[in-house]
Structures are given as C-alpha cells and as structure tokens.
What we know:
alpha/beta; seven-stranded mixed sheet; four-stranded mixed sheet
Amino acid sequence: MRAKAGFDYETAFASHLDRIRSEGRYRIFTEIARKAAEPPFAIHEGRSITVWCSNDYLGMSRHAKVLEAACEAARAMGIGAGGTRNIAGNHAPLVELEAELSDLHGKEAALVFSSGYVANATGISTLARALPGCLILSDGDNHNSMIEGVRQSGAEKVIFRHSDIDHLNALLSQAGEHRPKIIVFESLYSMDGSIAPIHAFCDLADRHGAMTYVDEVHAVGLYGARGGGIVEREGALERVDVIQGTLAKGFGCHGGYLAASAKTVDLVRSMAPGFIFTTALPPPIVAAATASIRHLKSSSAERKAQTSAVASVKAALLSAGIPVFASPSHIVPVMVGDPVLCKAASDRLIKHHDIYVQPINYPTVPRGTERLRVTPGPFHTPELITALTEAFTEVWHALDLSFAPRKAA
C-alpha cells in the first residue's frame, strides 16, 4: 500500500498481526493437492501425506457419480451460473436440487445459498427481522455464522448454556407467552462432537410457543437412514421448523441451504440480502450436489465405513493413552490446551510422519482448549489407523505433551 498522509495503515495492520503471532494463533494454511483417485492421500511439498482432518467426511467429492454429474452439467450449461437467481441465474439444476433437499428433510421447500455460512447469517437475521419484537435464544457454543446472523438481525438475544435444557426453559419462561421466539442451535457441534438434545428443545419450543432453527452442517449425509442428519435419525423432522445444512461436507460439494415450510422459505427468498444480491451457484456444483444427495439417500455403505473407522480410531488412540475428548459423534478431538504446542504437534505430524491434522486454536475454540481435530473417513484403513496412533504417541513424547485426560470447554 502506498503511503498516505495522516495515518499509517500498514503499521496498524502489522500491530494486529504481531499480537496474533504473540498469542500463538497466527494462521498458516497448509497447501495440499488431494489425490481424487487415492483418498485419503494428498501431495504436500512433493511427497504423499495422509489427510486426517478433512470435512469431506464421506469422500463424496471424488465419487464417480458426483464427478460425472459435474462434468455433464459443465459440458451442457457451462461453468458459471450467469447471474443472480433473479437475473438469468435460476438454472434448472438449482430448482431440481432444492426439490431434492426439501424431500431429504421432509419439508415443503428448500432454498440454496452460496455457502452454509451465508445461509445461517442471512437466514437467521431475515427470519428474526420479520417477527416484531422477536427474541432469539442462542446456544452458547453456536458457530460464528449463527452468531453473525443473530447480530445482523438486530433482535434481542439471550444465550443459554450449551445444551442446557433447564437454562433454556428458564429463559423461555421469562420471555412471555405471546412474544415471537426463535431457538437457534446446532445438532452436532463440530469442535467437541457433542449432540444437542433435539426432542427436549422441541418440547420446550412447543410449550413456550417458539420456533426451532437447527444447524445440521456437520450431520447431513452422515446420519439418518437417508442422510438427513441428526434430526432425521432422532425422528424429529416434523418437529424442527427450520433446518440449515451444507453441501460442502458430507455431500462433498459446495453451498448451503435452508429447508422449511413454503411460506418460511418464500419469506427468506424474498427478503434475504445474502440470497438476493449474490450470484447463483454454478450448474456443475449444483448437479454434483444433487447426485451426491441422491446416492446417499439410498446407499449406507459410506456411512457404515465411516462409523467403523471412527470407532477404530477412538479405541486405538484411547488405548495408547492419547487424551481424546469423548464424543458421541464422528468428531475425534485430541486435546492439547496450548496454541503454540498445538501448532508444534501439527507441524511434527506432517514433517516426521506425513500425517496432516490441522491445529484448532482460538477463536475457533476457547483459549486453553486448543486441540487437534481428527475426522476419520471410510478410506482410513486399519493400517493407516495404526500409523496415526504411533505418530500421535511419538509426537506426545517428543513435545512432552500431557497424557492426562482432558475435557472440552
């Protein structure tokens, strides 16, 4: 940036970066080239590594049906969408995808966004703004995208302790019977792997006249008989009012969405800036997502293989004394508790063992709960699990990390 009179912008920016570095949370992106034909391997600095932290949980980004759908759509319709949904971008594959999503979640309608983050940020804010005097009740561990949606709404908010039914009940009781209320929470929390008490939250919503809005981004594709998420698995599809999901994790593609009643979806479609003023998702991505969803509706092979790998990894690491936070889901958090040591552990894993697990530091998790987040998938074989366990053990000894059991915040 060229020098400007009156204020030194570069020095101000450098000061912020120096502070982030001093706190051990400066983010360095690891450059990899994934091998589509050889999951879960990738190339890093000219050598093959094993990826253990991907959110492409089931490997659907490289599934033959998904790849062919993307290529066919690209050949037929081109790469770009051509505009917003309102201006030339409402291509046929998008309409087809939304029908597939509404069917997946047992809802009247669905609406696709450019990302899961945008779906939350613009979806929550739009719904709350449309309800006069709305009160938002937000789980204390909600993702930043949900927090941003609450903030953008301008509505009054109260935060209830993570998955605390009694605290939520008390807050709802104080809110008043006739006031519009939205309970926003995640079905599966991606940093500690915990699962929300969905039916208990729905019971409270019924009792106090509140809407329920659930983020299923880390669950869709992975749970439920057809991949409809934790809500489907728990038999709560008819009880939850709004389901938000992503196409970028279990389905291996890109984009986000909301599924709800026809009027709810039409309201968001008509009022949400984050939907109205952005270019539509491109046809190849949309067609690929549709193919992935359709496949996982009928195939349980990927889910079964992932479940088996998750169980094996948890058992192996716990047997070796590695401080794994006990979670009821596919997320395997390995607790470190220090940002510098967490980064050092990740660096040593990739440098000495060709294993890639990204460090998770503040602000993604609270200070003092820094961790390595392992996400086993259907392509992680028993041999790779053994290598992972041996590598973690070596790193823990080499860095003198604590083997004491730890809990997530």
